[in-house]
Amino acid sequence: MLSDEQSAGRGRLGRSWIAPPGSSLLLSIVLRREVPSILLTALCSVAIVEAVEDLTGLTSKIKWPNDVMIGARKACGILTEVLSRDERTTTVVGIGLNVNLDPSAEGLPSTATSLSAELGAEVDRAAMFGALLRRLDALLSLDDRSLERETRRRWEPLLWRRSQGVRVEQDGPTLYGVVVGLTPNDALLLRRPDGELLEVVVGDVEAV
């Protein structure tokens, strides 16, 4: 499903996502294949980062677990939900990529950016959509084991703030550390100031 605008979008942790007409790529991917949610989110993130570089030459990174960043600003959000009905499981991945969005538009957070804002020129949304679909199709054509291996192989080097300091907001105490990589179960691996390695399973990652 593809949309041209979004006025009441829902992001992670109940946040809103606004996109004026003609500004973004807004799509939902419906998948009935058994792929873990975190891996599917990562797969889409990898496809977006690679498609953006293919078409624009821009370098972007993946902020664990579900945002695509250009520098310190967010260009894309991904929300994965698993729906069950009549013993059938369906996974829906919502993607919102800011293509020609004006980051100064009313209602947008100061941390938002877009491909056009970073490139200094308008980007062809249809071409961007095509580049993204090609990347997604190439990954989803793999068998389950290859899909998992290839997604993780490409995901970890693209982690935002890798080898740099972050803070992680969570229900408990705020965590501080340096991003090391990913654990085998796709948690974020941090090295705390005392040298201890820590797995982050849930949390909001920010630069420090």
Entry keywords:
208 residues, SH3 type barrels, 6-stranded antiparallel sheet, 5-stranded antiparallel sheet, 4 helices, globular
Q: Strand-and-helix sequence, N→C?
A: EEEEHEEEEHHHEEEEE
Looking at the structure, the CATH topology of the largest domain is: BirA Bifunctional Protein, domain 2
Biggest sheet layout:
6 strands, antiparallel
> Any low-confidence stretches, pLDDT <50, length ≥5?
none
Number of strands: 13
What number of structural domains do the residues give?
Answer: 2
Helix content: 25-40%
Largest sheet, spatial ordering of strands: 1-4-8-7-6-5
> Helices and strands: which structural class?
alpha+beta
Q: Quick one: CATH superfamily of the largest domain? A: Bira Bifunctional Protein, Domain 2
Q: How far is the N terminus from the C terminus? A: 37 Å
CA radius of gyration: 17 Å
Using the alpha-carbon principal axes, give the shape. globular
What is the mean pLDDT?
A: 91
Question: If classified by CATH, what would the architecture of the largest domain be?
Answer: 2-Layer Sandwich
The top level CATH class name of the largest domain: Alpha Beta
Q: What is the count of helical runs?
A: 4
Beta-strand percentage?
35-45%
Describe the protein's architecture and organization.
By secondary structure, the protein is an alpha+beta fold. It folds into 2 domains: 2-158, 2-Layer Sandwich (BirA Bifunctional Protein, domain 2), CATH 3.30.930.10; 165-207, SH3 type barrels (Roll), CATH 2.30.30.100. It has 4 helices and 13 strands. Strand 7 and strand 8 (88-98) form a beta hairpin. Helix 1 (37-56) packs across helix 3 (125-140) and helix 1 packs across helix 4 (144-155). The longest helix has 20 residues, at 37-56. The relative contact order is 0.16.
